[in-house]
Amino acid sequence: MTKVLAALAADTAAAPVLSAAVAIAGLFDASVVALHVREDGTAVPHELATAAGVELYERDGSPIEQITAACQSPEVTALALGARGIHGGAQPAGHTALQVITQVSKPVLVVPPHAQPRQSLTRILVPLDGTTESAHALREIITLAHAHRLEIVVLHVYSPDTVPAFSDHAPHATHAREREFLSRNVAAPHDRVRLLHHLGVAADDIGVASRETTADLIALAWRQNLTRGSAHVVSETLAHSNIPVLLLPVP
Known about the structure:
Helix content: 25-40%
Strand order of the largest sheet: 3-2-1-4-5-10-9-6-7-8
CATH topology of the largest domain: Rossmann fold
CATH superfamily of the largest domain: HUPs
CATH architecture of the largest domain: 3-Layer(aba) Sandwich
Distance between the termini: 24 Å
Number of strands: 10
Number of domains: 2
Shape: globular
Mean pLDDT: 89
Structural class: alpha/beta
Strand content: 15-25%
Oligomer: single chain
CATH class of the largest domain: Alpha Beta
Radius of gyration: 18 Å
Order of helices and strands: EHEHEHEHEEHEHEHEHE
């Protein structure tokens, strides 16, 4: 059976990380195992894992090295870890999270310390930029979400330079364009898919859309590079999101 690995640090993010891992495991039809890299001898990860009935592995050494090594197991289908260890509003993701997400070529769920994950997912926000690469990276998670009867909210953000010009029959043109966008980017059936078009900046609008739709999860495609392409969108989403963010590497 495949597993979701929950990396539990000795900080305030440990509880929401484990809760989010349990929720996402249902989507992947996986079980949950936990990993704690010992640094200060706290018993919190052990207590959390025991209460949740989750097996806990403890290791010594560098958290980044131990987490990335554990993710090499073919049984691990996804990783959950904390965005950072402290509360305090919008803040950049921590060093460990940023290093791990660039090195683990599997889905990585990044959980803010103030998140309050639900026991099971009901609604997922999927930003799509209209590229083939983004659609391909997000195809599996959309298919899984549809199979588990989640509501899928697809978000496409136009910039002032890319917003399309519609004909005089705007409602008809808009509907046709939405159908074309979904057909081109979403392989799953569209019966539980809702498309949102925003005009603005993706790095800002993703957070707005997640709050307006009360999404449980944001799924983002990215190229595992913090200096190019979608790096700004990923960094800003991790810094400002109140809900877990699932990063899916572009092949």
